[in-house]
Design goal:
- The protein is mainly alpha-helical.
- It has one domain (about 5-165).
- The protein has helices spanning about 5-10, 30-70, 75-80, 85-125, 130-155, 160-165.
- Helix 2 (about 30-70) crosses helix 4, helix 2 packs parallel to helix 5 (about 130-155) and helix 4 packs antiparallel against helix 5 (about 130-155).
């Protein structure tokens, strides 16, 4: 605050030197700044929770794909024995990981829109779905599917057909 203003306020309010100002002057800019600060903190918290959710879902996709690879070693061995290249196996498992992540992302968007509609109906709050988030989510889902599906797909592609086939 301006020191001249403080002195004028002290004279007008009859504040004598041993006593301190017992009032606070705020304007709309102060309130807007505080509101923006709170909004930025909430945005950071939501972003952090979204990042944690993406990592957890990616790990879940990787675990599912690793189980799928271990259960389908015979199929992979047969495909490799009849001429499938490593790149074919890699592509198959990467596509499966991307489909899993896209389905999860689509389910998340549907649940988010439904939650927004329920909040609007029950509490009459203005809960809107951001169109840019809905548009960007498939891209993030594909990236998560490729990133976390790469290790299981590579593991499947590197399987030796002789060890993958049963020795009956």
């Amino acid at each position: 605050m301006n020191s001249f203003r403080d002195q004028d306020d002290q004279v007008r309010l009859k504040i004598v030197p041993p006593r301190q100002n017992d009032f606070l002057i705020r304007n709309q800019a102060d309130l807007l700044s505080a509101s923006n600060s709170v909004a930025n903190i909430f945005t950071a918290l939501l972003g952090g929770s979204a990042a944690i959710s993406l990592i957890v879902s990616g790990i879940g996709i990787m675990n599912i794909m690793l189980v799928s690879v271990s259960e389908r070693t015979r199929e992979i061995g047969i495909r490799r024995a009849i001429g499938a290249r490593s790149s074919d196996i890699l592509r198959q498992f990467l596509i499966e990981a991307m489909v899993l992540s896209m389905l999860g992302g689509l389910l998340g968007v549907i649940l988010g829109v439904l939650a927004s509609l329920i909040i609007n109906a029950l509490f009459h709050w203005s809960a809107e779905v951001a169109l840019d988030a809905v548009v960007l989510s498939p891209g993030f889902c594909l990236v998560i599917g490729v990133f976390f599906g790469a290790y299981p797909a590579n593991k499947a592609a590197q399987l030796d057909p002789m060890t993958a086939l049963p020795s009956d």
